[in-house]
Amino acid sequence: MANVTDLQSKYSKLAQEYSKLRAQNQVLKKAVVDEQTASCSLKDELKQKEQSLRKVEQEMDSLSFRNQQLTKRVELLQEELLLSESKSKKSKFHEADEQFRRQEAQLRVRLDQLEKESEQHQAVVDALNRKYTDAIEKLQNDKALLEVNAQTLEREAKDCRIRTEECQQQLRKYQSEVSSQLKHSSSVIQEKVPFNDTQLSDYNSLNVPLHNRRHQLKARDVAAQALGFVQSLVSALLNLHSYTEQRVHIYPLDSSIEAISPVNLKFSQYLHENASYLRPLEEDLLQLHHSITEDSITALETLVKLQDFSRSFSSYSSFLQKILPYQLQSLEEDCEASLCTAALASKNRQLQKDMKKLTAVFQKLKSYVALLALPSVCSDAMCQSSANAVFTQMSACLHGLHDAATELSQHYSQKASLEQGLPTVTQKLCTTNECLLSSLASLTNSCGKMATFFSNNLDFLASCPGYGPRGGFLNPQQADSVMENKRRAATYMSTIRKVQSESVPYREALANRHVLTSSTESREGLMQQVAQSQEKISRLEQEKEHWLLEAQLGQVRLQKEIQRIAQLEAQITTGHPPETHSAADGPDPMCADAPEPLQDTSVIGMLTITPCSESAADQESREHLIKHHYMSRVSEITAQLQMCDSKAVHFHAECRAVAKRLAMAEKSRETLTEELKVAHQNITRLQDELSTTKRSYEDQLSMMSDHLCSMNDTLSKQRDEIDSLKLASKGNSKKNKSR
């Protein structure tokens, strides 16, 4: 099934690459067509420019012709003037001379104007000539570049077609392989798999999830950055609450001079407790960061420490809710002060709205954090789509927090500037306001950084599927099992990668074998000798017990004889003859007065010995019983010994079978590890090839898109210049026509 899924993923990736290549090929074709059309349009524009240049040259010729006509007319007038001076000698000659001079002056002025206009027209014509020549050179260069680019695009299009054909061949090959393996896998599934355990959540929860090390490193990095931002946020909030408490004791009434209002007193007492609510936030997030290690599994279902952070955040949000009415009432008291102006009162109203908005944003964040901490208690409490929605809404809420902090900082800055203009303001109040503004600035900065950070990592947080057994949920017990399996795998790989000891030479091995065989033979002989010695020892023990009993009986008899001798000596000394008693007369008075029976203990039990004389039949029966007892004990011990020997032989055979199985398992493990290495090498090679091809395609597409953008920019600039030149030439032509 794993091979089928891998091939299916490869097939889908190749299909995506094929579709991308087809789209890129179409884009390249379209780009080539656009470049061709652009080159044609540029050629047409070049022709139009040449035509306009010819028109301008014709206009210049006409202007030069008119200038020549004017100069000829002036010369004729001068000649007529000379003739009139020589011919007219009349009295009215002075008036005519003055009239001629006036006309001459007017004509000279007109001539100067025309010369200036001609110079201006000549300068315009020269400038247009230079401009048009530069434009023509640029267009020619652009045309050459476009032709080169068109050729390169055609070559790239050919290469893309060749690559698409190769990809299609690979795709057909992988399709055939996937179809064959799919058929084989489906047949195996139908024959061997009784049911699909991923369809039922109860069975699917028994599957072991995978461990993604790259995801762990990314999660640890994100947690470290979040910890830094939260620490800066906590520091800013601590400063804000502390300086607010200090301001309450200064304004509107100074606590060092007179008593402040009960509302402000209670408000300052609550503000004094801010550290007990803010410090646990930092500590709990630090514990959460420490719990995210490289060898752990990070998902919403396994982040148990997130519950502590959620509780701390909820307590701080409740703290803000608790101090909000006192803060609003404190701002009302600021408005009711005698020196409070209308502008300052309006700023206080705005600050009240800002504080309500800030508290509401923290309430929303509390709800979102509680929702994110819920899967660590109940793994199936929230699906992946809901988690994505929560992350998205949380990102928007963080941006709202930044906006609220920004508005609060702006309005408080305006309020502080207004308070500085009051006549009764003190230096202590100004310093406190500056500290409050700096804490609000750091709060705004921290909120902005946190919102930007969350937005940048939203794809990682929202689109991350987490860990789970084939689409199911993950609980901490499964995470522990995953890490235990990972540790076992690492231990197993380290053991198989150990350098094996050097092998023994062949001759030394043969000598060791001879020594081993001789030692085994000597061991068998020694075992036989030990068995014989144990039998001898058992017989000697039996004899020892027998002779111990005999010695005890002899000692009893000796004591009895000693007593009889003592009694006889006593009778002899008293002079009374000894009395003889028969068995029929009753018990012997000596026996009756004899001491209590003696008891002897040994390893086999307790033997009772009476000091009275016994018959030979009783002694023989007692000895017979003792022998029978010892023989039964010996037979039991030998049976136990035989049973132990048979069990030892059985265990020895089982150990040999287990050793053979272990050797076979080691061989199969080595073959499987080799196959696994080959498979990993193939996977890495394919991934490298895919990444290189994807990177090359992306680079080519980016270069082509940049080139097309630059060409479009140059074309738009050239069109603008052409339009401006057209308008200028039209305006000059209209002026010339009007003149």
Task: Characterize the structure shown.
The protein is mostly helical and 739 residues long. Helix content is 82%, strand content 1%. The chain has helices at 2-87, 93-192, 201-204, 213-248, 262-271, 274-291, 305-335, 342-373, 384-420, 427-456, 458-462, 476-496, 506-574, 589-592, 616-738; strands at 598-602, 605-609. A two-stranded antiparallel sheet has the order 1-2. The longest helix is centred in the C-terminal third of the chain and has 123 residues, at 616-738. The chain starts with a helix and ends with a helix. 15% of the residues are buried.
The gist of it:
GO terms for molecular function: RNA binding. Helices cover 82% and strands 1% of the residues.
Overall 3D geometry? elongated
Largest sheet composition:
2 strands, antiparallel
The helix fraction, in percent, is over 70%
Radius of gyration over alpha carbons? 58 Å
| Contiguous uncertain segments of 5+ residues | 465-473, 577-614
Q: SSE order in H/E notation?
A: HHHHHHHHHHHHHHEEH
Q: Please state the structural category.
A: mainly alpha
Q: Report the total helices.
A: 15
Strand order of the largest sheet: 1-2
Please tally the β strands and state the result.
Answer: 2
N-end to C-end Cα span: 92 Å
Strand percentage, roughly?
A: under 5%
Mean pLDDT: 77
Overview features:
2 strands; PPP1R21_N; mainly alpha; 15 helices; RNA binding; single chain
Give the SSE map.
Blueprint: H1 2-87, H2 93-192, H3 201-204, H4 213-248, H5 262-271, H6 274-291, H7 305-335, H8 342-373, H9 384-420, H10 427-456, H11 458-462, H12 476-496, H13 506-574, H14 589-592, E1 598-602, E2 605-609, H15 616-738
Helix pairs in contact: 1-2, 1-15, 4-5, 4-6, 4-10, 5-7, 6-7, 7-8, 8-9, 9-10
